Amino acid sequence: MELKELITALEARIADPKQGLSEAVFDLVTRLTPMVNVDLLLKDSANRTLLTWREDRFYGPVWHIPGGIIRFKETAAQRINKVAETELGTTVEFNETPLTITEMMNQGRDTRGHFISLLYECRLIGPLAPHLAHESGTPRHGAWAWHDTCPQDLIAPQRVFRKYIEGTAS
Q: Which residue ranges make up each domain of the chain?
């Protein structure tokens, strides 16, 4: 089968890329091109940073700044709102201009190894989902917690955001 035929067959299997891709197709795409994602920097009145716990085969178990990959024909604003809703159970407002744009590359990984990250300063409008709050012990996937400092077990690519997490960025 020729490459064009393979591509046509693959496209026929993708119902609506705006709704996301199957894991197999998504992983293929991440091996071919960088992914663009939004990260939501949320601070409370005590200048603590909200982080969520993730456990996955690529980077977990670790704390990370909530975020997500922008879907096909989705705006950054739409993805920010979707992340707030799905990861935190809340709504946010945010500055339209990212605090920083950072290229994140894991030289040892081809699948999910290259990202362009847009870090947005966000503010909570509504309450966080209380059932996702991490209280003590080992965090569960999807749990959130406020952090005074940058934790040692922060996802490696986001360590470049340490100064924003610790409030020392100028």
A: 1-33, 34-165
